[in-house]
Design goal:
The structure is a homodimer. By secondary structure, chain A is of the alpha+beta class. Chain A folds into 2 domains: 273 residues, L-amino peptidase D-ALA esterase/amidase, CATH 3.60.70; 120 residues, Roll (Ubiquitin-like (UB roll)). Chain A has 11 helices and 14 strands. In chain A, strands 1, 2, 3, 4, 5, 6, 7 and 8 form an 8-stranded mixed sheet that branches. Chain A has a 6-stranded mixed sheet with strand order 12-11-10-13-9-14. In chain A, strand 5 and strand 6 form a beta hairpin. In chain A, helix 1 packs across helix 2, helix 5 packs across helix 6 and helix 7 packs across helix 9. The radius of gyration of chain A is 22 Å and the shape is globular. About 1% of the residues of chain A have low confidence. The interface between A and B is large, with 72 and 73 residues.
Chain lengths: 405, 405
């Protein structure tokens, strides 16, 4: 597998184990990532006001220059769980710190925490405890350890989602590795899902936070499956903390790092709608010519969230009126007479007029490829944006009608 | 059929005929409604910036005290049809006026126009012309004429949608009758679909416009199927124009009229998600305790637009976390600790804590009824709102994947 070629960042250990939280026997559901020394941590979280306990706790602890790691469980979101949920999230960080190998002495407040899975059920803390104990014993820094950690954060994902980049600085070569999970309840207004990026590049906490937010805005904030914003969305970056012996990256190096991080986040983010529950198409929506980038984002988002657009792609149906009309109620300026639409490179609408086109050709171009490209130029200004979503098909509906019962 | 018991308003004539615009042989697709004398007309239209030609034309002609009627075609939306579309919409009003029986002499600019159907195809004007000629010959004021007119505006509707009310004033008894169409591309931000309300109550144009907008805000603006705002949504009220011999309703009578009109519009509006493409449930979402009515509307809308909420209802799944989390990203204040949720009267979540409940009982209550009632009290203030939507099931997806191809 290609993902095995990545170089892991120095100074971090990974583990993923099965604690029996998920119903499927042997499925990994507890992940632990630990830094050998205090590291930099930045986080971007859901803006949902109904927010899970682990998000509240992790948000209060980032950005930071003194984090030792992150503990994650899948199979239960610890969301809408009241006061017990807050206590359980804190207890998870305590257990993570308490069970570390002796040489890695840490405190509860040095840990971040994430949970993902069903909303509204209390965490099974006995299972969580035994899972964290077991994970702490299995920490290591090989590819296998990293991939186990990836498996431990997955829920309805059909495949593992990882990405990696490397940059060079005056201090040598630095590795950036990332993992994420998510296939449903993916909304476009915030860093969606769980994602963890780890790097041995030395970066200050405040800088890391700024760079991570910018990368999220071009990646995880540009994807959707059905637009339902989760209570648990979290994106965390762990980086080497600069010290007297290791200076932080300089501005040029930081620009390289930010570019690599953004690329990595886009690669990770696209894997989520590509794995959308039941999805047969990944839809890439490129908006050009909006007055501003924010306007382009609004138009792209509106198209991405239209069930009528999504079902048309499912059916290989060149029903372009659905795309243009979705752009029209995005709440930002658009003029039909300046607007042009292409699907998979084939022009369908231009300057307010429908074009003659070969419906069969467009239809076949949609059916022939997993990726469908929608290009809308609204002809007003320099604003552009690219978003990614899934089609909507009967499998998605079947899956989500039968999720808990 | 119950709908046959309505009293038609005096002074209006109706017709619906088949002109071959729809592919199904004999399906009615041209409707004509004519007032014997100049009447009051008010209109509420889509706010989509990609707007159909008939909407642009009708909007420019309402409110008015001098309208003679409205001409409607189904099977083609005359949207995204460029300059020819504008000419065709105007030509429809010219044809309606020119073909009236001699005693009803009128001009093109005295007519409103609506179109509904596929986007992006030019109107088949030869068929439209023969349809209007035929409709003008068949005008009448019996129940049959009225129901023919209802049929002429339908597209994917599974059933005809009518409602009626009557009020008494010092001038006697007044009838209010309404028809609407719509099953898909139903978004909640504006008067959705096509709807026509006709009354012999005497009302001034400016007053009619104000009352119609208020009624739309509590009815057609509170429904959704998938939230895709149409290019053609239009709601028009035709009323008797007050004159020297017939005074306008006084303030008390107007209040009665407004209440009856709002009731009628809600009754009509609910029929649309009840007929949502493939829908097996009508979902009624009652929000209480929001700071303002606008906040309550925002919360209701977010829940109504969540595919995850809709598929949970399809599956009879008491997955209440999806409802609460949808409320959390509506962009308005909400505090978990003050929030309470019931489904079909059964309490599931209260004061930030999940309640113990019988999942089987909730599930059965959803499966047993076409109507599912979601009640969310956010415990902050006096704002309330009720919205209606459909579930989301495989039939909707299948239908909309195969619409044009």
């Amino acid at each position: 597998m290609m993902e095995l070629l990545m170089q892991l960042p120095k100074g971090f250990r990974f583990a993923g184990v099965s604690a029996g939280i998920k119903s499927r026997a042997g499925a990994k559901d507890v992940t632990l990532i630990v830094s050998d020394t205090p590291c930099t941590a930045a986080g971007v979280y859901t803006t949902n006001l109904i927010v899970a306990a682990p998000v509240v706790l992790s948000r209060s602890r980032t950005p930071s220059a003194n984090i030792r790691g992150i503990v994650v469980n899948s199979g239960n979101a610890n969301a809408c769980t009241g006061q017990q949920g807050d206590l359980d999230a804190a207890e998870m960080t305590r257990l993570a710190a308490a069970n570390l190998p002796q040489e890695l002495h840490a405190h509860a407040e040095d840990f971040l925490v994430m949970s993902t899975g069903i909303i509204g059920r209390k965490l099974p803390m006995a299972k969580i405890q035994s899972g964290i104990e077991q994970a702490a014993k299995h920490l290591g820094n090989t590819q296998t350890h990293f991939l186990d950690a990836c498996d431990g954060i997955m829920t309805t994902d059909a495949f593992r989602k990882t990405a990696h980049r490397s940059i060079r600085s005056s201090k040598g070569s630095h590795s950036i590795v990332g993992m994420c999970k998510g296939a449903g309840m993916i909304g476009p207004k915030m860093a969606t899902m769980l994602a963890i990026v780890v790097t041995d590049a030395p970066i200050d906490a405040i800088v890391a936070q700024r760079i991570l937010q910018a990368a999220a805005n071009r990646s995880f904030n540009c994807i959707s499956v059905e637009g339902h914003m989760s209570t648990n969305d979290s994106l965390v970056l762990l980086a080497q903390a600069p010290s007297k012996s290791v200076e932080a990256l300089n501005d040029t190096e930081l620009a390289d790092f930010e570019a690599a991080l953004t690329e990595l986040c886009i690669e990770l983010a696209k894997k989520i709608p590509d794995d959308g529950e039941g999805a047969t198409h990944l839809i890439e929506i490129c908006i050009k010519g909006a007055n501003t980038q924010a306007d382009a984002d609004a138009i792209a988002r509106n198209i991405a969230l239209s069930n009528l657009v999504k079902t048309a792609i499912t059916g290989g149906d060149p029903n372009w009126g659905r795309i243009v009309s979705a752009a029209g109620y995005a709440g930002v300026p658009i003029q039909p007479k300046r607007t042009a639409l292409k699907i998979n490179g084939l022009p369908l609408f231009d300057a307010g007029e429908p074009l003659a086109f070969d419906a069969k050709q467009v239809s076949e171009s949609i059916r022939a490829s997993k990726l469908t490209l929608i290009e809308l130029d609204v002809g007003l200004g320099p604003g552009s944006a690219t978003h990614w979503t899934t089609d909507l098909n009967t499998e998605y509906v079947r899956f989500n009608s039968e999720y808990t019962t």
